Amino acid sequence: MLSASILNDTTFHPSIFILLGIPGMQDQHALIAIPFCSMYILALVGNSTILYIIMTDRALHEPMYLFLCLLSVTDLVLCSTTLPKMLMIFWFGLHTISYHGCLTQMFFVHAIFATESAVLLAMAFDRYVAICHPLHYTAILNATMIGKIGLACVIRGILFVFPFIILIERLPFCGHHIIPHTYCEHMGIAKLACASIKPNTIYGLTVALSITGMDVVLIATSYILILQAVLRLPSKDAQFRAFSTCGAHICVILVFYIPAFFSFFTHRFGHRVPPQVHIVLANLYLLVPPVLNPLVYGINTKQIRLRIWGFFTGKR
What we know:
It is built from eleven helices and three strands, in the order H-E-H-H-E-H-H-H-E-H-H-H-H-H. It has 316 residues and is mostly helical. InterPro entries: GPCR_Rhodpsn (IPR000276), GPCR_Rhodpsn_7TM (IPR017452), Olfact_rcpt (IPR000725), OR51/52/56-like (IPR050402).
């Protein structure tokens, strides 16, 4: 009787999942891992450097740099949620992950992605206030307000992603436990179910369009207003400085959203896209932003660039 109960339980929810990695490219896993590992190390070093420089230099304790700190933290968590497990799959053949471990990874992947999207929106709002309402900048974006915005970014990600776990828990898997991917994500798990996944599909699409899509619309709106304000500035030098600061942020936004939306829509509608292409893109959209964000801000933001140079040369 007990064994039958255990069997029924494992049939409904498997005790483990097996992550295949990149199907059809298993022989190249060890080589593919090298560039991914290199990018992961760059992401860790770059974002840790940004955090250290900003946190140890009180002159940089301004709203823009505090939001950059929050972006670096989300970048570190985002790439660390998937890359260590992927490297273990590629180099050591450790393909198994527990059922609850898989759901935990899924939750963090989607929640941190939603949080980072909210952080980018907050940074756009920061630039809007700084350029369009400079006299009220410090009054609007004080330390208390920045803390509340950061907390709201995290809470929003958690609230909208938590239903993914409920939607997965209700599904029977009928013994299916092999995921053709390098990490656990919502639709990848749902597609293993032997029941209707229509609620999963509808909610996933709703979250993507209502949260991430709305963030993109609001960010675009803020930059249209910023552009109008910058073009009205009398000084060409002031215009250049404003464009330079906003240019770095726009680069970060494009790097974050373009591969993410491409991966999202190919996963749901691009049935002719080879699975290898989709899986590589799904890994890159979680890894490329954490690698490039410190480089973009380090190159385009004078204060950060000078302090990074001083940090590595000892001339601070």
